[in-house]
Design goal:
Helices cover 48% and strands 3% of the residues. By secondary structure, it is mostly helical. A two-stranded antiparallel ribbon has the order 1-2. β1 and β2 form a beta hairpin. α6 packs across α10. The longest helix has 17 residues. The protein is globular.
């Protein structure tokens, strides 16, 4: 599925008796193996972001290298000449496009919202406003228990986009094609904020006053704070 992390993919493969989770993660974090995949300088210390979500026909007890190669090859086909050209025209590097797409993937599952979410983040990046994305913070928390607290939001990590401006250092999951396209084609809107409407969709705002009203309307049972989620 779109949005799975490296660890979640490894766990699913182990559950299906394809490869062992530990072996898969070892290969997906091996610098020599990563460098052999021809991803140039796109990746960081792991293959997070480049294990493309799709339907694969696999054989039990395959070597982890084979499974990873299939997923990376699929990523290369999807992020092919068309998206590379779009990346060049939009002025965003391929690496940053994948990072941004991974955040978009985690923020919404609705196709019609992806370009809007992308626009919010593009607008914030241009204005040097922190992205304030909860999913990035969560990615930086070891053994996250599902409860995001105020303490987490003020704890410095490379993935805490409340405290740091710009994109996180690596993707936070493995995004699908829709999110990759959205990262490269943000909607032409001035939105800077969005808040969950608690039905899977979001309300978007261009100014803080409107955003705070939306937070009060949709999240009034929760502490009022300037959040994006």
């Amino acid at each position: 599925p779109e949005g799975y992390t490296l660890s979640q993919i490894a766990q699913q493969l182990e559950d299906l008796n394809i490869v062992k989770k530990k072996e898969f993660i070892q290969k997906a974090t091996s610098p020599p193996f990563i460098s052999s995949l021809g991803l140039s300088d796109l990746t960081g210390p792991t293959l997070e972001g480049y294990l493309f979500p799709d339907t694969y026909h696999l054989i039990r007890e395959m070597a982890p290298e084979e499974v990873i190669q299939l997923m990376v090859l699929r990523f290369k086909k999807v992020f092919g000449p068309q998206l590379i050209t779009m990346s060049f025209q939009s002025g965003i590097s391929q690496k940053d496009a994948v990072i941004l797409a991974s955040i978009i993937e985690k923020e919404t599952s609705l196709s019609e919202e992806k370009s809007l979410i992308s626009a919010v983040f593009h607008n914030r990046l241009k204005k040097k406003i922190p992205l304030q994305s909860d999913p990035t913070v969560i990615y930086g928390i070891k053994n996250f228990n599902g409860n995001l607290t105020k303490g987490h939001l003020i704890k410095p990590t490379p993935y805490n986009t409340y405290l740091k401006t710009g994109l996180p250092p690596t993707p936070i999951c493995n995004p699908g094609r829709e999110s990759l396209l959205a990262a490269l084609q943000p909607a032409p809107v001035s939105y800077l904020y969005f808040v969950s409407k608690n039905d899977g969709s979001h309300f978007f705002s261009s100014d803080i006053e409107e955003h705070n009203r939306a937070v009060w309307k949709y999240q009034k049972k929760r502490p009022l704070r300037e959040v994006l989620k």
